[in-house]
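#struct-pred

JT: dropping the chains for the assembly here, can someone run the whole complex?
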Amino acid sequence: MAAVNAAEGHDGQAAELAGAANAQWASMSAQALAMDRPITAGYLDVARKRMGAGTWHSAWRRGEAMDVDGAVRLALRKPRAALPIARP
Amino acid sequence: MRAALAWTVAREQTVLAQRLAGALWPYWRRHADYTEARLWLDRALSLPAPAEAARGQRPTTAGATSDRSARRKALWGDAWISYYQGDYAHVRRLGEDLLRLAEHDGDRVGIRNGLTIGALVAMAEQRFDAAIRPLEESLRICRSSCPPWLLATSLLVLGQASLHGPDLVRARALLEEALSLYRRLGDRLFIARTKGYLGSMSLCWGPTRPRADGCSARASGGSWTLANDSESPRSSRPWRP
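RK: done, full complex below.
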């Protein structure tokens, strides 16, 4: 869902969800499957570049601090404004 | 169960320890107890082998076959747990050990499992092409010899690898067949996982795809860690046993 948000140009939400997902993996002493990284990384890299590293990092940290329920609510929330689909 | 596991380890009851840990790993995985799973599986697998297995002889009794079956199950479980922890070198060793044992014993499902582990490591290393043939062989074995859940999972993993290749029709067909089987089995976790990969097809090959060649390894150039500019200590923390 982080990648979907990045694809739609909702970069802040993408960063928060990526941070939340990463924190969930870390809390289990596990990590995102390496085989899945090519699927998401291209989108997230582009979103980070659009936002700028500092803003991206702040949003990522907010995501990391979320509990599971909060992260799921965020993932299922429709962004307020539909932005033009951003192509890298 | 912890007391039982500790007893088997302390008394070097190798087969019992491997049977217990090999039976518990799906529970640990579903509950995300990766650290505990890895602890007990590694301990069980490092116990001295029963005498007959240690001599490398083909089992001649039902007991010896059972001993090796317990080890194969524990190897399979440890490989999956270690895979989720990103310890791919360990996964590779476990998979090779499992494949050797399974071939020695003529265990077709074990051979399928060993081949699958090797392919998973290749996929983790972004060598998706190298994963296809062993996964095709795993699926071929599974269609005749596996219980339905394993067959569904062979379909899923081959579908995951195929996502990165040119044959998207095949990737979709594999994933949809896996989804159908998981639905029949009522496995909600793997229904969700499979749907995620069907969605990934649109991310990789739909109108917003990052590159013309989809989600190739060259396209990503990185990872979640890169996505966060390597600044988060949590994101880059490796697992330590």
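JT: nice. Chain B is about 75% helix and 0% strand. Chain B touches chain A through 46 residues (CB under 8 Å).
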